[in-house]
Amino acid sequence: MLCIFDAHVHLFDCEANTHAFLEREDPTFRYIIGDYAALPRRYLTDDYLKASASCQVEGIVWHEFLSSDPVGEARWGQRLADASPLHQSMVVLVDFLDPALEERLEAYAALPNVVAVREHLGWDAGSALRRFAKRPDLLTDPAWREGLRVLWAMVSNAGSRSLRRSFRICTM
C-alpha cells in the first residue's frame, strides 16, 4: 500500500464555518473546478480517510478554505487536528494589509499545528475569473510589504517560537 503525507487538504464544515462560495455559486470557483453543486457541505477527516482508503495516509497539511472568519476557521482546524488520528499541519489565511495583522498572527501562533501562513496572490490580467488577489500590485505595495515585515519581526522575536518555526518551514 502506498504511504503518503498529503500536502494540500481542505477539511470543512459549513455548520461550523461560513464559506460564501459554498452558500451561493461563485463564478471564479466554478471556473476553476467546474460545477460544484454536488460538493458536500461537510468534509471531515473520516470522509478524507474513506476517500483515500487505497493509501496509507501518515498525515495531512490542512489548508484554510476561504472562511468568512479565518481565525475562527483556524481554531476549528486546530480542534480537528487535536482529535485526529493523523499528523495534521495547518496553513492559515493572512491578509498583509489587515490593520489587525499582529493580533491575527498572535492568534495563529497560539495554535500548535500552524506551520505556515498564506495570502492568495494569483492575478491573471487576461481573465477576471482567475484573480484571487485584491489587486495586481500587492507584491510591490509598500503597505503590503510592511505587513510582511510585521510577520518577519514577529518571527524574529523569541517570544513567537511557533511563528518562527512556521516561517522557517514556509520559506525553506
Q: What percent of the residues sit in helical stretches (DSSP H or I)?
A: 25-40%
Strand order of the largest sheet: 1-4-5-6
Q: How much of the residues is beta strand, in percent?
A: 15-25%
Instruction: Summarize the main sheet.
Output: 4 strands, parallel
Number of helices: 7
Mean pLDDT: 90
Query: How many domains in all?
Result: 1
Number of strands: 6
Distance between the termini: 30 Å
Tell me the overall shape. Answer: globular
Q: What gyration radius follows from the Cα positions, in whole Å?
A: 17 Å
**Class by helix and strand content?**
alpha/beta
Order of secondary-structure elements: EEHHEHEHEHEHH
Which spans of ≥5 residues are poorly predicted at pLDDT below 50?
A: 168-172
How would you describe this structure to a colleague?
- This protein is an alpha/beta fold.
- It has one domain (2-171).
- 39% of the residues lie in helices and 19% in strands.
- The protein is built from seven helices and six strands.
- It has helices at 20-23, 27-33, 45-51, 70-83, 101-109, 142-156, 161-171, and strands spanning 2-9, 12-13, 42-43, 55-63, 87-93, 114-118.
- The chain has a four-stranded parallel β-sheet with strand order 1-4-5-6. The chain has a two-stranded antiparallel sheet with strand order 2-3.
- Helix 5 links the parallel strand 5 and strand 6.
- It is globular, with a radius of gyration of 17 Å.
- The chain starts with a strand and ends with a helix.
